[in-house]
Structure formats: C-alpha cells, structure tokens
C-alpha cells in the first residue's frame, strides 16, 4: 500500500468527520456545511451485534458516492463476522474498508479480499485489544484504526491509555518500513486532537465535536488548528 502517508500532503493530520453524528434527515447537507474543512467522509457501520447499535448499510455508502463522487469515503465495519459483510460494501464505492480484528474469523483472508477488489484495506482494534493482535497483518493494510473509545456510540470520553498503542504502531511502522496511516476514533475534539497527533495519529475521526456544533465548519477548523499547534515534525 505504498504512498498512503503521502496522502497527508505534509499536513499535521487528515480530518475525517463521522456522519454518525450528522443530521440523519440531512446527511448531505451536514457534509456540505463543512465546506473544505472535512478531508474524508467517515462512515461507521454497526450491526447491533458486535456493538450495541445499528447504523448505516451499503445503500448509504452508495448514496454518498453518488452525491459526492470525488470524496474520499472511509468505511469502518463494526460487524461480525466481518467477512460476511465486505461483499455488500465493496461494490458501493468506498476508498477504504476497515474491519475489526476482533470480528474477523479469518482477518488475513478478509483483508486480502478487500485489497483484491481495489480498495484500501484497514484493520481496527478496540481499547482492550493489544497491538500484538495486528502484527501478522500490518504489512497488508493501508490504515490502522485505533479506537479511542469503546465502539458503537458517539459522544464518549477519550480513553488516554490508548496513546501507548499509537506510539507502538509508529515504532512498528518505522522498524518494518511500512507506510500505513494511523487513524483514531472516539472522543476526538479540539482538546484531544493535539495529544493524538503528537503521539503519531495521522487521521482524526471527529463526530459529535463537529456535527453537534452550531457551526460545524468552525469546529472542524478548531480541531485542525489545535492538531497543528501540537504537531511535532
């Protein structure tokens, strides 16, 4: 997956607002309200089984691709078993499909299938899952998503213990000469953005901190500004 780090373009971070917190009846309008402040569209897919919530399906991703043909669409599958769902989402036009390592019975095969479809494969770990669970497949992925809250619902408080995982992934990436992006999701706001980027996070997923604001574009700018202030080159 060469060139993934180049996507950052020398910026402190990529901002990927999650539509989980957008106005359900006006998701397109919510995305447009950000103007150029959102880099990616992050889509959280939950099945009510792996996590205690139901969210979006493949029709939503297809609609996003039609409505935003040039957007970078980042799909996070919080479903089990993951391999039973990827076939539904691969034809819908996502740029990345990320699966939970805890939810894939055969994670290597699942990531290979995503890559064979011409989509960037990603893998995610929950706060209680050690980084060593990812080591056998790090060479296969373009993105590692570190959940910084327990997945399923927006608006949760950031879990600071995950920072050590981000730092370890940065070390592993350097030692193995890999170039996957490190994404963080959960409790991301203007206060935590700088801490996460300083630890090595490349992609910030922010939901309620952006879309629950009276001015989502301004909220997104504030998150990016604080991330840039703390960024160590």
Notes on the structure:
- It is built from eight helices and eight strands; from the N terminus they run βαβαβαβαββαβαβαα.
- The protein has one domain (9-230): Alpha-Beta Barrel (TIM Barrel), CATH 3.20.20.70.
- By secondary structure, it is α/β, with parallel strands linked by helices.
- α6 packs across α8 (216-230).
- The secondary structure category is alpha/beta
> What is the top-level CATH class?
Alpha Beta
Count helical runs: 8
CATH topology: TIM Barrel
Rg over alpha carbons: 16 Å
Question: Order of strands across the widest beta sheet?
Answer: 1-8-7-6-5-4-3-2
Low-confidence blocks of residues: none
Instruction: Identify the CATH architecture.
Output: Alpha-Beta Barrel
Q: How would a textbook summarize the main sheet? A: 8 strands, parallel
Characteristics:
eight-stranded parallel beta sheet; globular; TIM Barrel; 8 helices; alpha/beta; 233 residues
SSE order and pairing:
Layout (H helix, E strand, L loop, with lengths): L13 E2 L11 H6 L7 E7 L11 H10 L4 E7 L7 H4 L6 E5 L6 H10 L3 E6 L17 E5 L15 H13 L5 E5 L7 H7 L3 E3 L2 H4 L4 H15 L3
Parallel strand pairs: 1-8, 2-3, 3-4, 4-5, 5-6, 6-7, 7-8
Helix pairs in contact: 6-8
């Amino acid at each position: 997956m060469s060139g993934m780090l180049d996507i950052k373009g020398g910026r402190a971070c990529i901002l990927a607002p999650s539509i989980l917190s957008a106005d359900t009846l006006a998701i397109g309008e919510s995305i447009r309200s950000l103007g150029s402040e959102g880099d990616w569209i992050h889509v959280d897919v939950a099945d009510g089984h792996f996590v205690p919530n139901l969210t979006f399906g493949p029709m939503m991703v297809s609609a996003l691709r039609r409505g935003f043909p040039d957007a970078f669409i980042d799909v996070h599958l919080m479903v089990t078993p993951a391999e039973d769902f990827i076939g539904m989402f691969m034809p819908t036009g996502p740029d990345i499909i990320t699966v939970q390592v805890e939810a894939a019975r055969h994670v290597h095969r699942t990531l290979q299938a995503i890559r064979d479809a011409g989509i960037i494969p990603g893998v995610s770990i929950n706060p209680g899952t050690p980084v060593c669970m990812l080591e056998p497949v790090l060479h296969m992925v373009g993105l590692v998503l570190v959940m910084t809250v327990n997945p399923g619902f927006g608006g949760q408080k950031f879990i600071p213990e995950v920072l050590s995982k981000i730092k370890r992934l940065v070390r592993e990436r350097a030692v193995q000469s890999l170039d996957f992006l490190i994404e963080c999701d959960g409790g991301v706001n203007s206060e935590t953005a700088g801490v996460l980027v300083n630890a090595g996070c490349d992609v910030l997923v922010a939901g309620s901190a952006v879309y629950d604001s009276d001015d989502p574009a301004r909220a997104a700018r504030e998150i990016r500004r604080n991330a840039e202030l703390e960024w160590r080159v």
